[in-house]
Design brief:
The structure is a homodimer of 358-residue chains.
Chain A: E1 4-5, H1 12-20, E2 56-61, E3 67-70, H2 71-75, E4 80-87, E5 99-100, E6 110-119, H3 121-127, E7 135-146, E8 149-158, H4 159-162, E9 168-173, E10 176-177, E11 187-189, E12 202-208, H5 215-218, E13 222-223, E14 232-233, E15 240-243, E16 248-249, E17 256-258, E18 261-270, E19 276-282, E20 290-291, E21 293-294, E22 304-312, E23 315-325, E24 350-356
Parallel strand pairs in A: 2-12, 17-24
Antiparallel strand pairs in A: 1-5, 2-3, 4-6, 6-9, 7-8, 7-12, 9-10, 9-11, 13-14, 15-18, 16-17, 18-22, 19-20, 19-23, 21-22, 23-24
Chain lengths: 358, 358
């Protein structure tokens, strides 16, 4: 179902996706909270036009009490803010060979925003899930064709995941109403999962008595080692560390140039499998590694700042960063170690070529 | 100096530029003012980190009174807002063949924001331009390498252009402090010119006694019909009309699918050469044209809304839009009619392939 290519070059369709679905400028790692407009975006279809005055979220399916909640109803409920790293499951995809044809992410499909809204669990409790409910389906208003099938963007979670206390129905991003491109007027936030779980333009929540088998659940966003592998759904974010590329760039290649001396290197790291325990830095392409200094994340689901002072001598280098989380998960050295059919969860170490010029 | 390719495929460098420098989602044409994060971006180097508390704009060169203005000083001056269409001079470039290698824009490098700041002319008058001043140079804080030369991003305007009453030093976008990626804390706005003139992260303004010959002025952003042509600097935006692509998209190809019947088509048009006088619509790839209904722009430099009701019957179509301004300038039918070395000012009519399916 997912085409791939061995080409080093990219198609016009891939470029079109890149122009619509932008990454975070890596110098944006300097901000604890990513400014609106720098946070990555992945919009499968079009950004829907939604009229807030007639908007209502529907809760339906295997529930005792069907509900309809206006944005005002939602705002009058308990209000909670969480700073959350959000990352596209396809981050890193474009470095695979052969490469699955989809959004051609380098490693910039990330952002860390402050989301404000109301917890989901109490709403599901009020709706009263029936015993036969096994999954909760989240339906957006965006509609289009993918993998040959016309559908509305929908994703489900098992009931026990949907009832976790950290899931939010968010109506604000960084203290402002959700921008249209981030899900206005309402989106789900699933803090530790890849971004695909955090359904935008949320229109309804449906308790299902059997597992959801929509395109975005069972065809896309599956981790399959080969076409024959039935695959497992992607869920939590694997660990990743990124640095702000030091020095100045060349416009087209983005290659970096720095002057010799003490170069402060700073970055952020995250994992959906728990606390970041270690971030290492390498200036020689991953042959030797040094521990960096970790700061404190702003929130349990925010990213962890790290820093290192590199003493640079003239020459050519490849700077690398590698994160390890409390579960012991770390980043592979080579991208193709995590090759998979759809190009998901590709979390090889970042590599930043740098010239140090006197 | 500018490389080009005949390849139908795009390089990793072009994709990298697309991921950093995003376009406006064309459905964003529905908003009179483009939301922050949907407006196009072109960042030649890195987004600089600027500390507002120590920030000061310097006015220097051939002036009687050198000045240093803090952001607070600027905010205490006359406050003006203007809604302005901003468009990259490279918009449309990727459709040329052969294609200059740079940001691979389709036609989405546009946005229309509400910029607030203080007029430039009274500041230049206070500084007292000396008689020998011929150009005013605007210097940003962004630095990098382009066309083989390390430089700070700088652009100049002839004195009489810099003294126009419609130029702004803007510190707000859509009523908010400038986002980092749009020039925080201060940028120039030159309403009718392509975006390159509206220097971001403005650090100094220098009155020059000879024409500026920096890379971004005399090597890049030149309209050259051939390598031998000395070229002319690009200035004002050529006319362009864009429509919101109707119906629903296919994820990868972005091809549109609509149901038969009355399809409201809406869009916006603009020109740096004056009022939009006419926008035409074609459903047959530009063989036949119909006039559309024009609305009123919000501001003299904002875009002009237009609309048309298309009665769609099952089949395959190519929808087109074409703008004509009060100067009589219009859009060419074919992209290659405006082929030029750097791929600037490429304003061929928009073409939207659509399948009408029962």
């Amino acid at each position: 179902m997912i085409e791939r290519t061995e080409a080093q070059q990219f198609s016009r369709e891939e470029v079109g996706l890149a122009l619509r679905n932008h990454g975070m400028h890596l110098e944006g790692l300097r901000y604890p909270t990513t400014p609106i407009g720098m946070h990555y975006l992945l919009i499968h279809f079009d950004i829907p036009a939604i009229d807030e005055s007639s908007y209502a979220l529907e809760i339906k399916g295997c529930v005792r009490n069907r509900m309809k909640l206006s944005l005002e109803d939602l705002k009058q409920r308990e209000k909670v803010s969480r700073t959350v790293v959000m990352e596209c499951a396809g981050n890193g995809r474009s470095k695979l060979s052969p490469r699955p044809i989809s959004a051609p992410w380098g490693e910039e499909a990330v952002g860390c925003a402050r989301w404000t809204g109301t917890p989901l669990a109490p709403i599901l409790e009020e709706a009263g899930l029936l015993d036969e409910a096994v999954e909760i389906l989240f339906s957006g208003s965006d509609r289009g064709i993918d993998a040959g099938v016309e559908h509305t963007f929908e994703r489900s979670l098992p009931v026990q995941e949907a009832l976790r206390e950290d899931l939010l129905l968010a109506y604000e991003m960084n203290g402002q109403p959700l921008p249209p491109q981030h899900g206005y007027p309402l989106r789900l936030i699933v803090p530790d999962y890849y971004g695909v779980a955090s359904v935008k333009w949320l229109e309804s929540i449906t308790a299902l008595n059997e597992p959801f088998d929509g395109i975005q659940q069972v065809v896309k966003y599956l981790y399959q080692e080969s076409e024959e592998d039935p695959g497992v759904p992607i869920t939590r974010k694997l660990p990743r560390a990124l640095m702000v590329p030091p020095g100045i760039p060349e416009y087209l290649t983005r290659r970096r140039y720095v002057s010799p001396g003490r170069i402060p290197i700073e970055g952020r790291a995250w994992s959906g499998y728990g606390r970041i325990e270690r971030v290492e830095f390498s200036f020689d392409g991953g042959n030797s590694w040094e521990d960096t200094r970790l700061g404190e994340p702003e929130d349990p689901d925010a990213w962890t700042p790290w820093s290192y002072e590199w003493v640079a001598e003239p020459g050519e280098y490849e700077l690398c960063a590698r994160a390890t989380d409390e579960s012991g998960r770390t980043q592979p050295l080579q991208t193709d170690e995590s090759w998979n059919v759809g190009g998901y969860c590709v979390n090889a170490v970042q590599r930043v070529p740098v010239s140090v010029r006197p």
